[in-house]
Amino acid sequence: MFGFYRIASVCPTLKVADTEYNTDEIIRCGLLAKNEGAAVVVFPELCITGYTCSDLFHQELLLKKSFASLLKIAKSFDETDMVLAVGLPLRMFGKLYNCAALLQRGKIIGVTPKIYLPNQREFYEKRHFNSGRDLLNYAADARNANCCNGNGVLTCSFDGVGEVPVTNFFTVKCFESYADIGGDEIRFGVELCEDLWTAAPPSGNLALAGANVILNLSASDALVGKGDYRRNLVMNQSARCMAAYVYASAGVHESTTDMVFSGHLMIAENGSMLAERKNYSRKSEIIFADIDVQRLNAQRLSEGCFQDFDSTGYFAKAATFTALPVVANDLRNPAEGLKYRYISPMPFVPSDVSHRDSNCREIFNIQCAGLAKRLESSYAKRAVIGLSGGLDSTLALLVVVETFKLLNRPLNEILVVTMPGFGTTKRTKNNAVAMAELLGVELRTIDIKPSCLQHFKDIGHDAAKLDVTYENVQARERTKILMDLANKEGGIVVGTGDLSEIALGWSTYNADHMSMYAVNCDIPKTLVRHVVAWYADHVQELMVAAAVSDEKSAASDAKNALAEVLRDILDTPVSPELLPADVNGQIAQKTESILGAYEIHDFYLYHFAKYGAEPAKLLYLAETAFGTNPEGTCAKYPRVELVRVLKLFLKRFFAQQFKRSCIPDGPKVGTISLSPRADWRMPSDASSADWLKEIEKL
Asked: Of 244, 577, 262, 548, nearest to 388 (Cα)?
């Protein structure tokens, strides 16, 4: 469902050269994987015999027994669509090859010979095996067409089995299936151990030809530091290939005459490690991961390197297999579905604290570098910014202050303007004033109420009517003041709007929608909050408190005071403060009470814009991420709220594109940008009808 396939990587216990024992253990582990709903299970290199048989590979009995074991394993799974990839020595065309055999429905659907044979230091595979390079390239020679099947794949005949494709590329049988149309199609590329370690791994070309899942049957020995290097290889190759990479390596039961093997198991997806185990276990080990093939296929559509590659010739060499089982899920109960995949409720925010801190620091540095260049290139004498006491303008001001420090410019060249209106509360105004004073910038307060009342009178609007005109007049008045001050002072207006607001169009056109450089434009609201919190946590090292005593104690007090102000801002409800406060003087207009939680909107934005997820999948992922329980209610948000917010998100995202078509410049800091000059180009009058109709079915 939605392109999720459960993958297993296995390191079974074995006895070197004892094919019967090894076969029984492979079958036992395969059944465990089957019972967990695995679509694919990958075993280590030469697992039927053991990788360390050495010259025993030339023994006739061992070769016969290993092939008989292969047939036994296949027969044990003749009633399931699950694919098993197992390793064994195979004699083909009078030569011996180190092979991966793929099994499904009791049949050998293909064999892949190893191409690159390590033959240095502790390895001497060329003593026993031949490279499969010529076999895999055999079909390319027209003179050899009589040795190939109808698909142009070289085949080898085995007693009692018949013709078996020899290839490292496997795809589903029916290209016209709904899976292919819907982007759920799965294609395998296969390589063995050393193939990955070379300068040009076969998986690179396999991925360009369409393989989105790479299987690696390996027997990489354990050395100091090698595990980390191996992990980096797998993660980086999965990223380069934009594929899932499934790695299964031999374990501690291999011969220890000269080497020890750790049983390193890994499943990575496009640079992220989904599951891993490397613990030198004395028992069989299995790891699982639910990979998202639809997500991989969708991302490849936007990558030019995949679109430019002519893959038609390579498809002709693919062996085929029956459609695989997907992760079986009921939309009403998704919590039991993605058992082996973590869906982050905040995909823009790293869950690891140290990683999050480093990301926040880099984001802040990118913002400052972008603004510094703009200040220099525009010869701006000043930076002008409106400070509301809310999250976005707080982050923008911190960026401006740090940028002026980088440029060695006095902080009093920063002009901060607070513009209290009909909805401004004491809390936000006091925080804005305190922050400006602690940072040592110039602060001006301009009350916009008189000018707004005059404008209401000019356009014939009843000031008691609290409608969109009432709100937008205030927003445009504030922007007019900032723009005019920038002209008067020879400066530029620094914009404060964030990525979430840009996605939803939660801004007033030609008001807070506009600036001369928008430093927050690529940072979603959930991440803005974390960047401000990061600054508050590190204020002692980041802030140089101007306009306070030079005494260290006074400077430290100022920094602590600033941190307190920042934390109070973090605790303040998000609001444009355009409607009057409540009877207690507190914020009445709370954005998330109207739109829904920003973390839900950011979640939908991430999966919609980055991976093109359809509405049903967006909801499914959200229910999984936010903790739907078996009763069908979410631990954090009820399903009805997730559906409401999804409908609102899609409706606004389409309807508000006209604002994004003419947004100001600003730095890209992450993988998603909605600038028409960067990642997102969309007609302003596109219809959302099809997307909204899908929501009605949920």
From this structure: 577
Distance CA 638, CA 184 (A): 29
- Residue 26: C-alpha distances to residues 19, 51, 60, 86, 228 (Å): 10, 15, 22, 9, 27
Fold identical between 4-329 and 353-696? Answer: no
Could you read off the pLDDT of 443-484 as tens digits, one per residue?
A: 999 999 999 999 999 999 999 999 999 999 999 999 999 999
Per-residue pLDDT tens digits for 135-165: 887 655 544 544 555 556 788 999 889 999 9
Show me where the domains of the chain are located. Answer: 4-329, 353-696
Closest CA to 27 of 97, 65, 82: 82
Residues with a catalytic annotation lie at 45, 114, 193
What does the DSSP 8-state code read for residue 125? G
Positions in the chain short of pLDDT 70: 138-152, 173-183, 304-305, 309-317, 328-336, 543-553, 628-634
The domain made up of 353-696 has a fold known as: Rossmann fold (3.40.50)
628 phi, psi to nearest 5 deg:
-65, 135
> Which of 417, 442, 398, 437 shows the shortest CA–CA distance to 493?
417
Opening angle at CA 306, ends 304 and 311, nearest 5:
135
CATH of 4-329, one of 3.30.70.120, 3.40.50.620, 3.60.110.10, 3.40.50.800: 3.60.110.10
Exposure string over 522-546, b if 16+ CB within 10 A, otherwise e:
bbbbbbbbbbbbbbbeebeebbebb
Helix (H) or strand (E) holding 382: strand 382-386
pLDDT at 311: 62
The reported pTM is 0.91
Q: Give the start-end residues of each E strand in 117-161.
A: 155-158
Closest CA to 403 of 250, 306, 519: 519
Model confidence pLDDT, tens digit, residues 291-319: 999 999 998 888 766 777 666 655 546 77
Q: Is 85 left (phi over 0), alpha (psi -120 to 50) or beta?
A: beta
The Cβ of residue 205 has, within 10 Å, a number of other Cβ atoms equal to 17
Q: What contacts 553, CB < 8 A, 6 or more positions away?
A: none
| CA–CA distance, 644 with 633 (Å, rounded to integer) | 14
Task: Return the pLDDT at 123.
Answer: 80
| Structure token pair of residue 526 | 């959930």
**Contacts of residue 332, Cβ cutoff 8 Å, sequence gap at least 6:** 632
